[in-house]
Amino acid sequence: MLRQSQVRLVRTFHRAYTEGRSMVHQMIMGSGKTTVVAPLLALLLGDSATLVVQVVPQALLDFTRGVARERFGDAVLCKPVYTLQLERNTSVDARLVHKLRTARDDAGVVITHPTALKSFFLKFVELMKDLEESFLTEESSNTIFNFGGWMGKSSSNELLKRRHAELDNCVAIMELLQNQGVELLDEVDLILHPLRSELNWPLGKAVPLDLGTDRKAGNQPSGLRWRIPFMLLDGMLSAYLDTCPVT
């Protein structure tokens, strides 16, 4: 049996979805948000034109997936349940696009966690940055005076083709999520917390910090950037101790 509060909440969420609005609701532990409300919303919102993506903290991924498969595993409420796992080294290939499109066409539910989604978005940014840098490098090397840049061009072209194909797959997934997808966020206070949800992913080549090295000393890590704080400390300590600083 469903509680009256759960029925009202599901109707409120469904009305907000039909009106094109996002909605957040706070529920106490044990009120059935993962076992009742989320499966009902996935049942109502998921059809052959809408992809339902349920995002949960990584610690709750197995539990949420088990609940979804238990709810949608019978012959009456039969829905396929998929898992989306992505990391930095994961290749965004055509199989992933096909998997998400199949989940949409079959009115299935995709269970994932925030790190996987952020990894996908950062992978998208990384691919665009790599292709932009390769395009600028290719423009600078395609001159009549640059003969060394022609060596190894075939291997770089193959890499660029793979990058382009991967970027096309990212664009297809982005269009699917933005235009034909709906997200159900569980434990939204953890998922969207500005300090707990950070995912560090450095991009580009490693370059020295400004004023971090001393060119006269052979690019040793003794640049002005590191000497300035000690000079300031010397000034304060000399004023406090009434001595002459030695730098």
UniProtKB/TrEMBL annotation:
Keywords: Hydrolase, Protease, Thiol protease, Ubl conjugation pathway. Its EC number is 3.4.19.12. One of its GO terms (cellular component) is nucleus. One of its GO terms (molecular function) is cysteine-type deubiquitinase activity. It is an enzyme of class 3 (hydrolase). Residues 1-152 form the DUF3638 domain. SUPFAM superfamilies: P-loop containing nucleoside triphosphate hydrolases. The keyword Transcription regulation does not apply. InterPro entries: DUF3638 (IPR022099), OTU_Deubiquitinase (IPR051346), P-loop_NTPase (IPR027417). GO terms for biological process: protein deubiquitination involved in ubiquitin-dependent protein catabolic process. It catalyses: Thiol-dependent hydrolysis of ester, thioester, amide, peptide and isopeptide bonds formed by the C-terminal Gly of ubiquitin (a 76-residue protein attached to proteins as an intracellular targeting signal). Signal peptide: none annotated. PANTHER family: UBIQUITIN THIOESTERASE, UBIQUITIN THIOESTERASE ZRANB1. This is ubiquitinyl hydrolase 1. It comes from Octactis speculum. The lineage of its organism: Eukaryota, Sar, Stramenopiles, Ochrophyta, Dictyochophyceae.
